[in-house]
Structures are given as C-alpha cells and as structure tokens.
Amino acid sequence: MVPFLLLLHLAVTVAAGDATTLTATPATITRSDQWITVRWSNLPSPSPLDYVAVYSPPSSGDLDYLGFLFLNASASWATGAGSLVLPRLPDLRAPYQFRLFRWPPGERSSNTRLDQDHDPLPDAHHRAAVSGHVRAEGNGSRPAQVHLAFADAPDEMRVVFVCGDAGRRAARYGLLGRREEEWEEAPAEARTYERRQMCGYPANDIVGWRDPGFVFDSVMKGLQPGRRYFYKVGSDLGGWSEKYSFISRDIEANETIAFLFGDLGTYVPYNTYFRTPQESLSTVKWILRDLEVIGDRAALVSHIGDISYAKGYAWLWIISSNKLSLFRPVLRTIIKFRMPGNSSLSTGTGAPDTQNLYYSFDAGVVHFVYMSTETDFTQGSAQHNFIKADLERVNRSRTPFIVLQGHRPMYTSSNETRDTAHREQMIEHLEQLFVKHNVTLALWGHIHRYERFCPMKNYQCLNTSSSFVYPGAPIHVVIGMSGQDYQPKLGSKA
Predict the structure, then answer these.
(1) Rounded CA separation 231/237 (Å)
(2) Which of 154, 228, 415, 477 is a good FRET partner for 494, with 20 to 30 A between their CA atoms?
(3) Contact between 440 and 475 (Cβ < 8 Å)
(4) Is 80 exceeded by the pLDDT of residue 492?
(5) What is the DSSP-derived secondary structure letter of residue 274?
C-alpha cells in the first residue's frame, strides 16, 4: 500500500507544480565535453510514449527532427522527471535544440512518414517544453572532419578537412623532433556544394539538407619515406586543429598493413527515420585496438562502398564523416580510402563531376586497384581502359600481390536477382583481365555478410588448396559485414 500512496503523492505534486521544464547541458560543447545531458521535470501524468526530439538548426519545424528518444529510457520517467545522456553530437554548423512532446496512450500518429518497419513516426503534435540551444565551441571556422589519403607522388600526403567558411586555410607539417616554427606550409583549396544541386528527396528537402560547410584539400609534399610527421590544419584567423601525426608512405617497405571492409553504416544515439547499426561502432573500436598493437608501423583503412547509408540525409553523412574522429584523435594518423557504392549514389547530385571513382596505388608489397561498380566498366569504357593499362604496368617484383576492390560483387552466394545481370556483365568484361594479370585477391561489399570463395574463373572453382601460390584466378571475398544490417538469408536485403 505504501508504494501506491507514494506514487499518488508524486502525481499530485507534479500536477500542482510549475510548468514542464526541459534543459540541455552543456550549452557550449568544448573539445573536452563528451556528453550532453537532457533533463526534464514537472511533467504531469507521463506516458511511456512521451519523447524528446532532437533538432538542428533550432528553426526546424516540429516534424523536421533529426531523431527522438523516449523518456522511458530514464529510470525515473514515471515520476514526471528524469534525464537522458547522449554522447557528444557532431558540429552541424548550427545549434542543437531539444523539444519534449506528449504521446497519449491509444492515440495514433498522423505522421505520413514511416520508419524502416513501416510504422508511423511521431507526429510532434503535443509539444510540452523546449530546451535552450546547445552549440559547438567557436563559430564553425575551426577545422573538423580531418582525413588523410595518399596523393599521386610517393613523397606526398593529402589532408582534407571542413570549415564553416571559405577563408584562407593551410596545412603545416614537420618531422618528429622539429620545432613548429620550422614546419613547412601547404595551402589548401576550398570547395562546396549547394542544396539546389541535390536531385532527390530527402537530400534537397529541409528535413535532409544541411549546410556542408567548405571542404579544404591540401597536399603535404617532400616527405621522407617511412618517417613520422606531425601536422595541423587551419589558420591563425580561424583557428588551428589539434596536432596529429602520420607515418609517410614508403614504397620500398617489405610489409603492408591494411584494414579492409565495406558497408559500415552510421550509428546515431537516438531513433531516426530508419535503423542505424550500432555494430559499426564495434568495427571502429577493433581498428583502434589493432592500431595500438602495431604502434609506429604504417597502416591504411580501405572502405569499399556504402560507408554511411545516409540515404539522402546530409546530417547523417556529416555524422559518418565524424565517426572515426569521435573516438580518438589517433585516427587522424592512418590513411583512409573510399569508393562509391550503390547506396552512396542513390540520391543523385547535380554537383560537378566526381573525381577518382577508380584509381590505384602501391603500399608496401601490395598494388591496390579500386574500381567503381557504379560506373561503366564494359570493354572500351574509360574505366575498363584504366584497369587494363594499370594491371599491365604493375611491377610484380616490387608488389607481388594485387588486391582489387569494388562494391558490388562479381561472385556471391546471394540470390538477389536485381544484381544478376550486373554480375554477369562483370564476369564478361572484367574477369579475363583479372585472370590474365594474376590478380591475387578481389574484395567486394554490398552483401552484408562475409563470404570467401576459392579461385574462380567462369563460375568454376580452380583450386581448393590454402597455398598462397597464385592458383590461376583471383580469390573472391565479400566483406560487406562491417556494420550495416546483417543479411541472415540469401535473398534481397531491406
């Protein structure tokens, strides 16, 4: 009987108290802040369906939320007061705001948008409280989303980063042990794109579009092979990033360390328009664990398509770009390579032509070739000519292993019929090139499972031994299992 009296007393206190309040702290997210706490109080007769929605910018309409959290995730929700904790949210170049909504039991949502399970999303009809703004430290001019990649020459390294304006920026870099005053400086070029260049919903709609800022591209040159360099990016006026480091490329190295995977997906710590895979966080954590083990040895990360599954929501793409950097600054020390997947290109864009959809480079004892399965690869096409010429030039005494990577697989046990013609076309136009030039390994994504095939030629298995001696055709491995929804069956994925 006592618990009943206690709950009755609390309900009466809430009903007779002040208006419902909602706060979010800290109001300014500094570099050291890792969490955002949302608190509410004085909520009368709480329902297990009441929720807090996340917005950025604060001018967004009630229905145009980024996502939402049910209050019943707080242990004290039934008292009309509680709190929810979110990990640090990325800078979207606009403040965040939180709004509390009631969802009475038995009331059906009138929202026409459906989630991945075809259930209606919250309709934001009964707003009860609004928080203050939560903004990132600074005015958006400080660099974010810092990434490294090989440039054309072995003694170069490209660094790409994002700022909120197009003002002058640069990369400063120097060898371990050199004073910053002695560092070299490489100018950075800025580019951006606009909402009108997006071709479809939701990318060109208010719910999906977000200001991308300006993408800066700088190339650090004259690097000595296999040495640790320190660097930072930015400007005196707009602010500099933290200092990071990397190991420069050494094409004479006798080993290659690479983290290879596809279809990572993007996890967000709230419910949104479709499921986001928490498993992708595990992949990043495992990479971090292995990086600590390898220490000062050079490494690269290669993602073979569909890295974000943003599905036209620009803010999810920004979160994906921040994903590696959310864990530790050490990930600005490894080299990252990407390629397009079918989900990456599903929205379409009217922006300038994308560059480097197919390319190659040497890293230690491996020659890596990247192809775009979403671009014409038939005989006579520019991509087919590139792959043919590239394989003909490989120095097998220097790089005895050739690893080719593409998104949609040439071989898979999946019976996804919509890709059948595509696979047959790849076998017709590309397989003979791979066999003729002794490609060692072909890596693919798209199918969200791990599959390893024996050396394949014209649908036939040529060799079942585990020897590393070239068996007459490439071994095919599907590695699209790094995070995005697992496909337990062999049929089409959702």
Answers:
(1) 18
(2) 477
(3) yes
(4) no
(5) S
Q: Which helix (H) or strand (E) holds 431?
A: helix 431-436
For residue 324, report the phi and psi dihedrals to the nearest 5 degrees: -65, -40
DSSP state letters, 9-55:
HHHHHHHHS---EEEEE-SEE-TT--EEEEEEE--SS--TT-EEEEE
Beta strands (DSSP E) in 316-449 are 335-338, 359-363, 366-370, 401-406, 441-444
C-alpha to C-alpha distance for 125 and 115, rounded to whole angstroms: 18
Nearest in space to 444 (alpha carbons), one of 478, 418, 475: 478
Asked, as a colleague might, if the bond just before 104 is cis with ω within 30 of 0, I would say no
- Collapse the DSSP code of 280 into the 3-class scheme (helix H, G, I; strand E, B; otherwise coil) and give the result: helix
* Residue 52: C-alpha distances to residues 22, 34, 131, 133, 355 (Å): 9, 20, 10, 14, 41
Condensed to tens digits (0 to 9), the pLDDT of residues 164-184 reads: 999 999 999 999 889 999 999
Distance of CA 99 to the CA centre of its chain: 27
State the DSSP code for 413.
S
Contact (Cβ atoms closer than 8 angstroms) between residue 210 and residue 95: no
Q: Look up residue 183 and give its two tokens.
A: 């560092």
* Among 432, 438, 424, CA closest to 474: 438
Strand partners, 188: 218
DSSP label at residue 198: B
**Which amino acid, residue 294?**
I
Compute how many other C-beta atoms are within 10 angstroms of the C-beta atom of residue 128.
18
pTM, two decimals, is 0.84
Question: To the nearest 10°, the Cα dihedral for 456, 459, 460, 463?
Answer: 20
Q: Give the chain's count of helices (H) and strands (E).
A: 6, 27
